[in-house]
Amino acid sequence: MKVAIVGAGFSGIGTAIALEEEGVHEYVVLERSDGIGGVWHHNTYPGAACDVPSYLYSYSYEQRRDWTQPCSPQEEILRYIDDTARKHRVLDKVRFGCEVVDARWDDTQLRWTLTVEGGERVEADALVVACGQLSRPRWPSIPGRDTFEGHEFHSAEWDHDHDLRGKRVAVVGTGASAVQFVPPVAEEAAHLDVYQRTAPYMLPRRNPRYPKLVRSLIANVPGLQSARRLGMEAFMELCILALTKAPPLRRMLWAWSAAFMRLQVRDPELRRKTWPDYPIGCKRILFSSYYLPALGRPDVELVTDRIARITPRGVLTEDGVEREVDTIIWGTGFDADAFVLPMHVHGVEGRELQEVWDAGGGPHAHLGLTVAGFPNMFLMYGPNTNLGVGSIIVMIEAQVRYVMSALRRLRATGATALDLRPEVLRTSDVEVQDRLKDTVWTQCRSWYRQDGTGRIVNNWPGFMAEYVKATRELDPVQYQELRLHSEALKKDLVRAP
Q1: Phi and psi of 269, rounded to 5°?
Q2: Predicted confidence (pLDDT) at residue 20 exceeds the cutoff of 90
Q3: Which residues does residue 154 pair with via DSSP β-bridges, in sequence order?
Q4: N or C: which end of the chain has fewer CB within 10 A?
Q5: Pairing assessment for the beta strands 202-203 and 286-287 based on DSSP bridges
Q6: Closest Cα partner for 185 from 273, 261, 291, 284?
Q7: How do 111-116 and 121-124 pair as beta strands?
Q8: What letter would DSSP give residue 200?
Q9: What is the C-alpha separation between 268 and 413, in angstroms, rounded?
Q10: pTM for the whole thing?
């Protein structure tokens, strides 16, 4: 069996490692950029770090005890992924600069054919789509963007050659990336305008370097790292309970955030601007002990008036005020509900995945992994597998185990492919969406929800442990087994020139 993996982030590398352990050595990882790491390769903005402690935001089988900080910076996470890929000898299976633009299922040969930008084709028996949910920067459709005479770039494509010192800078967006890069940008820029559409809920994260004694204890005390990991996972499951089923716990979470934000912002006007007007957890809760103080600097202005247009000299808001700037940094997030785009995926009878999803109300997959009519295709970090709170690496490892279970099933039965039964997909989707109706995520607009429909397409409605259990083993009853018959091969040979 030959497997094609699209993407070399945590999902793609984790799948490659598992394939090696399964004895499946015929695989290739197609990566569009020039390095592995996915989101951690592309997002190199100042202050970039994970807001989940690294002892949980890492593979369970590859624990590191020499992290320099609880929540590691981008460079350290990227080095971890690279070291892990080298240790497990999967790096030589990664082909860089290969952007897959099309993937097609052959109903006769029961195989996938992937077309790489430039025209090269790669054939595979199974397709693992490991593009992630946060891989494509979202550029806002604000009038006049093309008229700006200064310099602009997206936070996910940081221009390190552009010197911000002494510049007048505008940051558009106050999401997870912005709260990390705004403080260092404020220190460099002559003046900074931060344009906010919605105020985020904040929780503390000072993230100091581990003292020498703590690092020594972590490295040398047996079981300490495992206990920390289990403890953090339990705390995060408690937070998930607050967001999905337990309003009293949610109120406690709100009280914690409110107390922290009040201590951080003393100015009444700034506090008014930074105070969220929606239930906590409805949008992503952000972690920083430096963002709100940065907004209180005399050379920083938080602008809450809606942007009317971009002018050649700066940003014009709807109140008629134009603020002149030299540089615009777009912290406007990602196209989180695109999933496979811009790649086009065609399944049985040539049906296109995005069209199937559009007809079905939005992206959906059984356990976020498989879609009926797309045999031997597995989505990593697919629809409804994101977490409002938690470590996505826990979810990714569960998905990898499920894929390996599917491949073992094929080997055991001699089948060529597995195709999810349509009724399983329908039932699975209804159950997930029904459970999501009672969660806090339905109570405001966020990137968890699809634009236009309001359907929650990103988040899992339950606990991490629940998902791990649900994906532990593929249920063969839920799938149709497809077999490649000799007659089909004969017909194909007859048609061949």
Answers
A1: -70, -45
A2: yes
A3: 330
A4: C
A5: parallel
A6: 291
A7: antiparallel
A8: P
A9: 68
A10: 0.94
